[in-house]
Amino acid sequence: MPRAPRGSFTVREMNRKADRAGVAAIETGFETRSVFDVTVTPRRLELVERPLLAPVVKRYPIEDVFAAWARWTTAWVAVADRIIGFAAVEYEAWHARLNLWHIYVAPERRREGIGRALLARVEAHGRERGARRVWLETSNVNVPGIAAYARLGYTLCGVDTTYYEGTPAAAESAVYLSKPL
Questions:
Q1: Is the overall model pTM greater than 0.85, yes or no?
Q2: Residue 75 maps to a domain
């Protein structure tokens, strides 16, 4: 199959069986030269960016996408010559919220609009379902991701400094972002 030109891709609904291997092959790692320190007071939440002495590489376990506990119900893939992006959501009707469970873009294809295109499809799906907002959780270490979400209209709506206790990410804090639809 000929290689698609750089920047060329399509977004389509995921076929869980046929696309599983392609999604599992996406590299989830990113490098950051800063983290957000989380400040919580009785009436305020704040993320304060702090430079690191050395860059940190973080990888999210892609196998979590297919774990037995994973609750996403609908997903899309960005495809060029292979799967280069993935986003998965779950709609919660009781409060009309669309939860973004996962979004990944292959590192060599980042900053080409793939994440933006996947989120546009996520948000369109949310509006179709009657969601009032998209909601997501990430880590205070994911400075590049939080910056990308902010550029696309997502804002801080909560933090949990204990969310990852008992896991390898115990020193991190969960950061919750949302966007009205």
A1: yes
A2: yes
